[in-house]
Amino acid sequence: MTNAPLPPSTAAQSARNILTRLHEVMAARTNAQSKLNQVVGIIGECLDSEVCSIYLLRDGSLELYATRGLKQEAVHVTRLALGEGLVGTIAEQIETLNLDEAAAHPDFSYRPETGEELFHSFAGVPIIRREQAVGVLCVQHSDPRRYEEIEIETLQTVAMVLSELIANADLVDTTARIDAAAADQSAQRLTGQKLVDGMGQGIAVFHQPRITIEHTVADDIEAERHRVYAAFDKMREQIDRMASQAEFGIGGEHEEVLETYKMFAYDEGWSRRINEAIDSGLTAEAAIERVQQRTRMRMRQIDDPLLRDRMHDLEDLSNRLIRIVSGQMGTAAQMGLRQDSILIARNLGPAELLEYDRRRLKGVVLEEGSLTAHVIIVARAMGVPVLGRVRDVRTSIREGDLLLLDAAAGTVQVRPTTAMLDAFDAKLEISQKRRANLAALRDLPAVTKDGVPIDLMINAGLREDVAALDLTGARGIGLFRTEFQFLVSATLPQRERQQRLYRDVLDAAGDRPVIFRTVDIGGDKALPYMNMEESAQEENPAMGWRALRLALEREGLLKVQARALMEAAAGRTLNVMFPMVSEPWEYEAARALFVGQRAWLASRGKKLPAAIRYGAMLEVPGLVETLDLMLPHLDFLSIGTNDLTQFLFAADRAHPRLAERYDWLSPTVMRYLARVVKLMSGSKVTLGVCGEMAGRPLEAMALLGLGIDRLSITPAGVGPVKAMIRSLDLGALRQDMPAILARPAANPRGQYQAWAEQYGVDLGN
Ligand code: PEP
Ligand code: MG
Question: For residue 133, what are the β-bridge partners?
């Protein structure tokens, strides 16, 4: 809103007159009832209306609380159920009615005690609190006339202020109303894509919660205007910045969303309407909400799904604007989860998810999301089920609704019935039994039916993850993502903090090996506290200045990490792995840096690791061409199939539309991996896979078939993958593999499934 303020319109002026008088009433030290009596008097007088009445929701029905013009005997006597009569319809539908002949409306319900037969015209607006109607404000007149648009707008503005008065005076139980409304609403079933398996039950919590407006009447209109100007500037800045950020820089859906955001953010009509609402005497927050309420009411009458989607975006933006203006920028994580919850968001970053209390977070529902996005890897590590690509989230789910999430079934039940709850519990019991059966495998070796031992390790990233070693019986940690510590910190973790974490992890692991991967930041793992300007402006951050590329340039960062790792592993074997190696020299440079730091520590008489083993990740397809040059200097190689497949197919791993387009079991991936296995044959370098692919029984089976016998996977995958291994005739599979690779079926997944079925492999189905 860069324009100079316009003179207040007549509508604004008329509302402002009323608001000024209401302000005095609200500030007076009288009781709520007498305030409401004064309010109906003022409105009736200012709008030149014979009748003005306020109905408030109480014990589930709308009670006449105050009136000017109707019979006073009817006050606290006349009651209408939600949906009953004109007043009940307004509250139930959250809509405005403006009628020249009230009795002619099909919903009209005559109440003789009020004496309303004298009045023909009727206009009523809902009084809204937290998106629910808590009452109705209406005016009536003996002339059969329609109220002017200006008068309706004034009523709506006044209703907004009344909602504050009502809430402050505790006149209606808004929570009960919301619960009642939720109970009214029938159960619903939304579908989506399983991103992290599991079942969870909890109440709906929005990652970016709605803000309840506390003050509606402005003390100083100019000050409010400036607050809203500043908020608009800030919001536009944020939107522009988003455009250059990783998640929005990739075209497709994100780009469409961003375009719409931009369109609304710069829409002069929207800012003008907010300005007008401020002119009428509302605070900046109330003005934004007032305009949004009006838009919502209009949208209820439009049945165009495309337009409704766009309105969600405006809703998002309006919410953002209120959050900026009120300074309440926090997410639900910052406010803390108070009970078992299912988190709802359009999308999340890995760091945002990590801010939530794991004990209370029972699931996540995303409107977007894809299998290998880092946030999903984090969720998997946290053991939190995630359902992605769920549509109509914001129209179907409200804050506080009970949700049953069943990721495997691809569903979330909203406001379930008792029967649904029972069925869910029964299914949960079965899945817990299966988990218990899998847990029983914990102490059994990961050996195939024909006696081939498989090295089964877990992926981890946080101190708490290490407990999964004992719970799963895995042989060690094949990938410790050290960047998780950086992502959960508010500031760059200093050497001591890093060292403490690494030492704790090694202590907890005992004799079991831990492979520490050096920081893999950048891409979708941006650190807010680090100056990442170079990457913020990237068009393709996943292929940009990230991981080892960044670490080699920010040498200080890698040196600190090297020392922290070496000191933590003093007297033990340290396994270090470098991410995103594209050419051998990068690996050599990183290794040389570690060797240099080892010498530095030695020169200071520090105790050193008994041995250091160096490894690299194969994530950039091109590295295969020079693998032979690197092998003599390597101790181990780990294939990161998440990044590898994104680069093999040139398909962003976080892009929701591409999430299911390419299959890990496609000949492209399988033949590529077969080539790597062949190149490594005869070498002493151990080869493993640590991408998400390896944590799924069917994919893991295919990897073993290729000749890979070391998998590092998400802890939740250990049981199912071990069950697969123990039921697998690996000799038979390895014999059939060349034919499968040479003549892949049109549906390669089906081909592996058929093989597994024929040979009785346990895939957990
Ligand atoms: C991978 O890319 O497969 C991998 C294991 O690393 P990350 O998922 O952390 O990028
Ligand atoms: Mg990777």
Answer: 128
- Non-local (6+) Cβ contacts of 350 within 8 A are 374, 375, 377, 378, 484, 487, 524, 525
Nearest-atom index, ligand 1, CA of 579: 6
Q: Ligand 2 centroid to 681 CA: how many Å?
A: 24
Distance of CA 438 to the CA centre of its chain: 30
Strand positions, DSSP E, 511-661: 514-517, 573-578, 611-618, 636-639
Extract long-range pairs of 317-321: CB within 8 Å, 24+ residues apart: 317/235, 317/261, 317/264, 317/265, 318/288, 318/289, 318/291, 318/292, 319/208, 319/210, 319/211, 320/208, 320/235, 320/238, 321/228, 321/231, 321/232, 321/235, 321/288
| Ligand 1 site, residue 154, Cβ cutoff 6 A | no
* The pLDDT value given to residue 258: 65
Probe ligand 1: pick from 196, 465, 481, max atoms within 8 Å of CB? 481
- Which ligand 1 atom sits nearest the alpha carbon of residue 547? 10
**CB of 49 closer than 8 Å to CB of 71:** no
Helix axes 268-279, 10-27, angle to 10 degrees: 50
pLDDT tens string 230-241? 999 988 887 777
Helix (H), strand (E), coil (C) string for 229-284:
HHHHHHHHHHHHHHHCCHHHCCCHHHHHHHHHHHHHHCCHHHHHHHHHHHHCCECH
pLDDT digits (tens, 9 = 90+) for 142-193: 988 888 888 888 899 999 888 888 887 766 654 444 444 444 467 889 999 9
Please report, as a single letter, which amino acid is at residue 415: R
CB atoms within 10 A of CB 759: 15
For residues 565 and 517, is the Cβ–Cβ distance under 8 A?
Answer: no
The Å distance, Cα 580 to ligand 1 centre, comes to 9
All residues with CB under 5 Å from ion ligand 2 = 619, 640, 643
From the CA of 482, which ligand is nearest? 1
Tell me the pLDDT tens digit for each residue of 302-320: 666 666 656 666 777 888 8
Counts of helices then strands in the chain (DSSP H, E): 29, 22
Question: Are 629 and 651 contacting, i.e. CB atoms less than 8 angstroms apart?
Answer: no
Gap from CA of 449 to ligand 1 centroid (Å): 30
